C-alpha cells in the first residue's frame, strides 16, 4: 500500500501541482483547503505525512500544526514564502519536523518527503524495538504501557480486550479455538463462558478495524476459532 500524504493548502493551483507530482511519484494524496478541514482529516484519516502551508485563511498553519501535533505523530512539513516564518518554525516549537520555501521545485519536494518518510519508518521501528512493542501493519501495541495505536492514533481498550489482542498478535497466523483463548487469556479451564470470547473479539474489531464486519486482522476460521493476520 502506498503512503498517504495530506496537503493542507488554500491556494488551489499550488495544491493541485503538489498533488499531481506526489501522485506521479506513487503516493496517495488528500487535499484540504483550510485549517479546520485539515485538522479533521489529520485526526480522522490515516496519513503518513502532512504538508502544511503557513498562510491559511482563518486559522494559520502554526495553530493547525499545534492542534495536529498534540494527537498525531506523523511528520509535518510546513510550506512558507516568508523568511520570518522560517524563524518561527525553527524557534517556536510548533511541532513541525521540517520546512520548505516557496517557490520550490517538485523534485525537491519529492526528495524531502521520501527522506522524511524513510527516517520516520526507521525511528518507528527503533522505538518499537526499544519498548518491546508489537507492530503489525497500522496496529502498534505496547505491553509495558498497556496502550494500542491504530494509524498512530491511540485506541482505548479494556484490560481483557488488551490482553486478548496482545495474545493474538504475539501468536500471529495461529488459529485458536474459543476454549483455548478462554484458557490462555482468562486463565480459566473448562466449563467457562466461552461466549465472552466472541464478545471481546467483536469489541476488538470495533476498535481496531476499519470495517469490523469485514475484518482484515482478526479473522474467523469457521468451525475452528480465530487468528490474527
Automatic annotation (TrEMBL):
Carries keyword Phosphoprotein? Answer: yes
Q: Which InterPro entries match?
A: CheY-like_superfamily, OmpR/PhoB-type_DNA-bd, Sig_transdc_resp-reg_receiver, WalR-like, WH-like_DNA-bd_sf
4-aspartylphosphate: which positions carry it? 53
Domain called OmpR/PhoB-type: residue spans: 131-229
Listed A to Z, the keywords are:
DNA-binding, Phosphoprotein, Transcription, Transcription regulation, Two-component regulatory system
CDD domains in alphabetical order: trans_reg_C
Which ranges of the sequence are annotated as binding DNA? 131-229
Domain Response regulatory intervals: 4-117
Q: What are the record's GO terms for cellular component?
A: cytosol; protein-DNA complex
Q: Which Pfam families match?
A: Response_reg (PF00072), Trans_reg_C (PF00486)
Gene3D superfamilies according to UniProt: 3.40.50.2300, 6.10.250.690, Winged helix-like DNA-binding domain superfamily/Winged helix DNA-binding domain
GO molecular function annotation: phosphorelay response regulator activity; transcription cis-regulatory region binding
SUPFAM superfamilies in the record: CheY-like (SSF52172)
Instruction: Specify the superkingdom.
Output: Bacteria
Give GO terms for biological process: regulation of DNA-templated transcription
The name on file for this protein is DNA-binding response regulator
Amino acid at each position: 500500500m502506498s503512503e498517504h500524504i495530506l496537503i493542507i493548502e488554500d491556494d488551489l493551483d499550488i495544491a493541485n501541482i503538489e498533488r499531481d507530482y506526489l501522485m506521479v511519484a506513487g503516493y496517495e494524496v488528500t487535499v484540504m483547503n483550510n485549517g479546520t478541514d485539515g485538522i479533521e482529516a489529520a485526526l480522522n484519516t490515516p496519513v503518513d505525512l502532512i504538508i502544511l502551508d503557513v498562510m491559511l485563511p482563518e486559522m494559520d498553519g502554526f495553530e493547525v500544526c499545534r492542534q495536529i501535533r498534540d494527537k498525531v505523530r506523523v511528520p509535518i512539513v510546513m510550506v512558507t514564502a516568508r523568511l520570518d516564518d522560517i524563524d518561527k518554525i525553527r524557534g517556536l516549537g510548533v511541532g513541525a519536523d521540517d520546512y520548505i520555501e516557496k517557490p520550490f521545485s517538485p523534485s525537491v519536494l519529492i526528495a524531502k518527503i521520501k527522506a522524511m518518510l524513510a527516517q520516520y519508518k526507521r525511528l518507528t521501528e527503533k522505538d518499537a524495538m526499544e519498548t518491546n512493542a508489537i507492530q503489525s501493519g497500522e496496529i502498534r501495541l505496547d505491553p509495558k504501557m498497556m496502550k494500542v495505536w491504530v494509524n498512530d492514533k491511540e485506541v482505548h481498550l479494556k484490560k481483557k480486550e488488551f490482553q486478548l489482542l496482545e495474545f493474538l498478535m504475539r501468536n500471529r497466523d495461529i488459529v485458536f479455538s474459543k476454549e483455548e483463548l478462554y484458557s490462555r487469556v482468562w486463565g480459566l479451564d473448562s466449563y467457562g463462558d466461552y461466549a465472552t470470547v466472541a464478545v471481546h473479539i467483536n469489541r476488538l474489531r470495533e476498535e481496531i478495524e476499519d470495517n469490523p464486519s469485514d475484518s482484515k486482522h482478526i479473522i474467523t476460521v469457521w468451525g475452528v476459532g480465530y487468528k490474527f493476520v
